C-alpha cells in the first residue's frame, strides 16, 4: 500500500497481521492515528446525524471558508473546489503557509524540475536548502536522493553522491552534510549572493559555496530541494533565486524540487491552478486571492477537511474557529475537532479510501485502499447535494 503520511507517498508499505512494515515512525503514527468520533457540539452521534447537521450549517452559511484538503485524494479535492464555487466561498490549503509558492514556480515553468526517480538514478549533488528531510520527509534520502544505489549512481553515497545543506541551524541533515559534504549556515540571500560571486571567481560572505559549485561541475545532473526555511528566507521575492538556478544551469543541469509538505498538497495546487489560475487562497465570490488566515476573520462558517489548523496555525485562527460554525471532516481526533460544532470522521487516504494523489515531484500516484469506509469525496458530495 501507499503511505500518505507525507509527500514521499512511499509505495512499499506492507500491513500484515496488524503490523506495519517499511514505514517510518511518522508513517506508522499517521496510519495508526486514533479515529475521530462523529459528534455535534462534542456529543457523540451517528455519522448520519453528523452529516445532516453539517449539511444544514454549510447550506445556511453566508460566508464560508473551506480549508485543509492536502491529505485527501484529488477526486475529493475536486469536489471541495466545486462546493466552494457553488457557495461563492473562499478555499485554501496549507500551501499558502507552506511551499505553494515553490509549486507555483514549477507550474509556471520558471524553474527546471525533474522527478524523484530521475534524482535517484542520476543526481550527484543533492542540495537541501532550508529543508531538514530527517524530520519532514523521513524516507526522502533513503528512497530517492542520497543513499540509493541506482541507475548511474551505483556506488552510493560513499562515492556517487555529494550532500550539501544550506540552513540557518545545525539540523540532523546539516550534520550529515558537514561530515561528508558541505554545510553552509547563513542568511539565504547572502548565500545566493555568494554563489553568484563564486561563479565570477570572487569570494562572497560564504566562500565555502565554491566547493558546492566545483562538485556540481563534475556531474551532468544535480538537484536543489527547497524547504520552508528557504521559502520564508526569501520573503516572497523569488527572482534572485530563480536567477541563480538559471545561472547554475550554465555550468551543469540543476533542477529544483520543493521538499517537505503534506501528501497531496501539489494535487490541490494543480487542480486550483487549472480551475482558477491561482494555486491556492481563492475567493470564488470576488475572483481574488485571499488566504485562509485572512478569510477566517470575516467568515461565519469554516469547513476544515483533512487538516488541524488549531495545532499548526497562529492562535488567533484557533480562537476564531471556536467562535464561528466550524465543521471538521478528518480521520483522526484533532485539536480542531475538539472545538468544532460538528465532526465527521472519514477514512485515512490509502487505507479506507482510494483515488489519486500527486507526489511532490508531480508524479500521479494511485492509492489502493484495503478496507471500505467513509471517504472524503462521499462527505463532500453529500454537502454539495444539500447546497
Ligand atoms: S516517508 Fe512519508 S510517505 Fe514514507 S513512510 Fe514516512 S511518512 Fe509515510
Shape: globular
Q: Count up the domains.
A: 2
What distance lies between the first and last C-alpha atoms, to the nearest angstrom?
35 Å
Instruction: Give the strand tally.
Output: 18
Question: Do you know the CATH topology of the largest domain?
Answer: Rossmann fold
**Rg, Å, rounded:** 22 Å
Strand order of the largest sheet: 4-3-16-15-14-5-6-12-13
Q: Give me the CATH architecture of the largest domain, please.
A: 3-Layer(aba) Sandwich
- SS content category: alpha/beta
> Helix amount, in percent?
40-55%
Task: Give the integer mean of the pLDDT values.
Answer: 96
Small ligands present: iron/sulfur cluster
Largest sheet: 9 strands, mixed
User: How many helices in DSSP terms?
Assistant: 19
Quick one: CATH class of the largest domain? Alpha Beta
Q: Approximately how much beta-strand content do the residues carry?
A: 15-25%
Could you walk me through the main structural features you see in this protein, from its secondary elements to its overall organization?
Helix 3 packs across helix 14 (265-276). This protein has 2 domains: 35-97 and 263-386, 3-Layer(aba) Sandwich (Rossmann fold); 100-258, Dimethylsulfoxide Reductase, domain 2, CATH 3.40.228.10. The chain starts with 13 loop residues before the first strand and ends with a helix. The protein has helices at 25-31, 47-60, 74-86, 100-107, 116-122, 133-136, 140-143, 156-159, 172-180, 188-199, 209-218, 228-233, 239-248, 265-276, 292-298, 309-312, 315-323, 335-339, 376-386, and strands at residues 14-16, 19-21, 39-40, 43-44, 64-68, 90-92, 125-129, 162-167, 182-185, 222-226, 254-258, 282-283, 288-289, 301-305, 325-330, 342-345, 355-358, 364-367. The chain has a 9-stranded mixed beta sheet with strand order 4-3-16-15-14-5-6-12-13, with helices on both faces. Strands 9-8-7-10-11 form a 5-stranded parallel beta sheet, sandwiched between helices. The chain is of the alpha/beta class and 387 residues long. Residues 3, 5-6, 8-10, 23-24, 26-27, 30, 137-139 line the site of iron/sulfur cluster.
